[in-house]
Write a structure and sequence with these properties.
There is one protein chain. By secondary structure, the protein is an alpha/beta fold. It has 4 helices and 5 strands; from the N terminus they run E-H-E-H-E-E-E-H-H. The protein has a domain of 103 residues: 60s Ribosomal Protein L30, Chain: A, CATH 3.30.1330. A 5-stranded mixed β-sheet has the order 3-2-4-1-5, covered by helices on one side. Helix 1 crosses helix 3.
């Protein structure tokens, strides 16, 4: 292989956030925000996503977090939701995502995202730029599936 050859590999992209309450809309909002950040910071395209695993702590049980990916149009991506292990002292109301992504990027080029109270899970990743939540919400609204937009307006 010469220096210009790029190797396509399946890479893991991780992220975590927290919800304020065990409310379906709160869970979907926080999951969409996290997905939006992962997409934007890594320049992800849904056609390059192999699959996604979503986990939540046991204090969140009012909605499937994977629905947020469907709301963003990820209809052809295999999604799975699982329960996070209950470890004494672990972060409450936590939503985690593991994306499997076909990319030419190397592992050290991938940006993993930990926001809100989940920042404490990975203090080594605290050098990310601050999140402009308003700009993120605007971007998310532009990328929601049309059927979801009409339902959210009701």
């Amino acid at each position: 292989m010469n220096e210009t050859t790029q190797v396509l590999a399946c890479r893991g992209v991780r992220g975590a956030t927290t919800a304020d309450t065990n409310d379906p809309e709160e869970i979907l909002l926080r999951t969409r925000q996290l997905l939006g950040l992962l997409i934007r910071r890594n320049h992800l395209k849904k056609e390059d996503i192999c699959s996604a695993v979503f986990s939540m702590t046991s204090d969140l049980d009012s909605e499937f977090p994977a629905l947020a990916a469907r709301q963003l149009g990820w209809f052809d991506v295999p999604l799975m939701c699982v329960r996070e292990l209950e470890i004494t002292g672990s972060l409450p109301r936590c939503i985690r995502i593991l994306l499997h992504w076909n990319t030419t990027k190397t592992a050290d080029e991938i940006v993993h995202i930990y926001v809100r109270d989940a920042e404490h899970l990975r203090p080594d990743m605290g050098d990310l730029p601050p999140v402009n939540w308003e700009a993120l919400e605007t971007w998310l609204e532009e990328h929601l599936d049309d059927s979801v937009k009409s339902n959210l307006r009701k």
